[in-house]
Amino acid sequence: MRTFPRPFLALSLTLTLLGLGVLPARAQSPSSSTATPASASSTQDPAQALVALSKQLDSIKTTLNTKASDGTPLNDLRTQAGTLQQQASQWVETLTPQLDSVQSRLTVLGPPPTAGAPPETAAVSQQRRQLTRDQGKLDGEIKQAQLLNQDAAKLTTEIAETRSEQFQMQLATRTASPLSIKFWSDLAHAFPDDSTRLKRIRGLLADGFADAWQAENRMPFVLCMLGAALLIVPGRKLIERLIFALVLRYMPEGHFRRSALAVMFTLSVTLSIGVAVWLIYQGLNWNGTLDEDIDALMLALIRAAFFAAFVAGLGRALISFHHPSWRLPNLMDATAKVLRWFPWLLGGAFLLLITLEHLNAIAGSSLPAAVCTRAALALLISGLIGAALLRVKRIKRSQDHEHRQTKHALWVGALAGLATAGVIVAWIAVFAGYVAFAFFISWQMLWIGMIVTSLYMLTHLQHDLFETLLSPKGRSGQRLQTAFNISPGTLEQSSTVLSAVCRVLLLLVAVGTLLMPFGGGPNDLFSHIGNVFVGLKVGELTIKPGAIFNALLVFIAGLLVVRVIKRWLSEELLPKTKFDVGMQMSIVTLLNYVAVVIVFALALKTADVSLQSLTWIASALSVGIGFGLQAIVSNFISGLILLAEQPVKVGDWVSMSGVEGDVKRINVRATEIQLWDRSTMIVPNSQFITQNLRNVTHGNALGRVKVSLPMPLGTDAAKMREIMLGALNDNESTLETPAPYVRLDDVTGSAMTFSGVAYVRSPRDASAVKSDLLFDLLARLEKAQLPLSTPQSMIVRNLGPLGEDSPAAPG
Asked: Where does the signal sequence lie (predicted)?
């Protein structure tokens, strides 16, 4: 499987971030003004900085009370209030350690001397007074910063509520219906004034072109126009062909190639068209010759061009009419064919929307003209969406008629139903006179469609990326397995977890972006989530999202380092020592436990969690240990004792309470013993400490082999002894020291019993060696014509109650 080089991956990620960065939010009005907030620098005097923040907060409150009903200034005020709240919080975090330092120094000095005690020196008294003044000053500044933080938070909430009220009032505003005569008569009366205003804008544009055609500006103007023309069509197609060739050559086959290609095609359309419009602006305003109003209009058009191009490129990449195999959604070719032009039409509709909106704002168009423009735009956007839905519905009906049904996800049908309802509501609202509401519905359909399709594409991209990078069969996955000794299952689980985390983050960003038209946004959403977690206290423990994230990074990095050290110890260092395999595994396990505890302590320190904050946890655990956790703690301590004292180590052959086998692993709670049938017995560690245990292989014990042979009474004992000693000495597995020996154990009325004993290197070899000796002895006895003793037949006789041998039987 081929993989793509790191430079190409870095280029892809850079283009992705660039595309997300250039994607504008909503086009802001050029007349919106933002005040520069005071910076909370550590080099500033805290008192002066807090006074400046207080004045700025009062200025925001005054502006809020005097502002007209316009959503854009309220958004700016809300941003300023949020920035002020963050700066006040920073001052609290900056001054609190200083106050703690002063208090600790006062603690070192101790309390002032009481009456009758020896007086302290003048230097100590002066230092105490200075520290007391500093303590009071810092305490007052911290309280002031906390109060500013609370006031800014309340002001942010008040601004959001005010904007929500204004937004609802605006949507509820009703004008004359386009079906009424009044609507057109008002437009006709305002037409002469609007025409005069538009002529002024047209004159300004003509002056701008005339200035750009001057001798000193002509060459840059021509070059910029030529560059824009080349970028829009031939340049974009050339970039797409280059991307296509690079992807086919360097990216591995699979789903990631398809999703990455969709993202790159989207960015190519966005950047080529957006940069082309930016070049047009640069050519017209090369030496700053444009009028202020025209310059603001052009800047708004640049932002709108990037957004419109993104909408068109996104739809084009997902439909993928020319390359069906690269298509991400489950669309038929017929559906893709009827929808191929709609992304461009919707992008153009959005560009027209922003152009007309800013043109009306700059020209100062009348209310009838603005209402007429918004009504036309609402009908245009909703009409395009409705036409697309009708065409898709027609294709689906023909498909169902031919009995080739394609299943789609539930959310696809829900979005289609909502879009259909939105189109119907928008048209009814326009002809009922609720033009502002219809315009909002039409814009929201376009906005939500863009967000949902972007989320769909990015979700596929991140899922395919993790699946490719962490695939056990891929090159990167194999390198991770080799470098960190990670199992294939762990890689697959990591891919699933990381993909789920990224999916949740993308969903949160999408939800926050959807809230932007209602006065919210991604920053507000994460701010609310952060405030919830920051305000969450459990006992004396305060949860901070940033600290938790840093602690997770420290913990994961620490575990990776521990894993590398464990592998180095088990594969490099310990095999070169005199320790046996069981001792090596015990050392690695014990050090692993110690290292994990240290990493966990470092993670707690990074999360700003002190032992004092965990006292309530210790108290709760002490009660639990006294009841349900006593056995677990006992097994845990026993496991540490086993690892430290080594009465049993990995590889030993143990026998206890009917369990006999090899120790395979000593865990924190229990020990794994492999039995003779290859099954595994899990034994709690406490049993190794509290019960009698036989360790067969402890202390390098030798294996003992004993062979007993019953021989007839007439057997030559000396010859039998010689045969058995020969067999014991000739076996390769028996040891010379201790030397084998043969004894005559017993002589009965029917047989003589000879026993031979030999020693082997390990008790594990005794059974196999005994079998070999028996085969060898049987062959030697047959060759020497010495038969083994046969057992006598058993006679079963009736013993009573009145049998012939019964004492009660008659004589």
From this structure: 1-27
- Within 8 A by CB and 6+ apart from 155, the residues are 57, 60, 61, 64, 81
In a domain, 795, yes or no: no
Residue 788 belongs to a domain: no
* The two structure tokens encoding residue 520: 């919210």
Return contacts of 586-595, CB within 8 angstroms, 24+ apart: 586/643, 586/646, 586/649, 586/650, 586/666, 589/643, 589/666, 590/640, 590/643, 590/644, 591/565, 591/566, 592/562, 592/566, 593/640, 593/643, 593/668, 595/558, 595/562, 595/565
Q: Are residues 445 and 587 in the same domain?
A: no
Contacts of residue 518, Cβ cutoff 8 Å, sequence gap at least 6: 164, 167
The full DSSP string for 315-360 is HHHHH-SS-GGG--S---HHHHHHHTTHHHHHHHHHHHHHHHHHHH
Mean pLDDT over all residues of the chain?
77
- Residue 491, token pair as written in the block: 């890689």
How many domains does the chain contain in total? Answer: 5
What whole-number distance in Å separates Cα of residue 57 and Cα of residue 63?
A: 10
Looking at the fold, whether 681 and 736 belong to one and the same domain comes out as no
What range defines the domain where residue 489 resides?
477-535
Distance separating alpha carbons of residues 18 and 29, to the nearest angstrom: 24
Burial class from Cβ neighbours inside 10 Å (0-12, 13-18, 19+) for residue 177 reads middle
711 with 685, same domain: the answer is: no
State whether 211 and 71 are in the same domain. no
- C-beta separation of 69 from 41 below 8 A: no
Q: Which of 522-531, 601-610, 657-666, 667-676 has the lowest mean pLDDT?
A: 522-531
Query: Are 230 and 250 in the same domain?
Result: yes
What is the CATH classification number for the domain harbouring 767? 3.30.70.100
CA–CA separation, 387 and 392 (whole Å): 9
Question: Distance between CA atoms of 763 and 758, rounded to whole angstroms?
Answer: 12
Helix axes 435-469, 292-319, angle to 10 degrees: 50
Which residues is 541 bridged to in the sheet?
Answer: 538
Residue 30 pLDDT greater than 50, yes or no: no
In a domain, 143, yes or no: yes
Of the candidates 695, 728, 759, which is a domain's last residue? 695
- Residue-wise pLDDT for 533-566, tens only, equals 454 555 555 656 667 777 888 888 888 888 888 8
Q: Are residues 526 and 639 in the same domain?
A: no
Cβ atoms of 765 and 703 closer than 8 Å:
yes
Do 317 and 417 reside in the same domain of the chain?
A: yes
What is the reported pLDDT for 424?
92
- Extract the tokens encoding 500: 């789920």
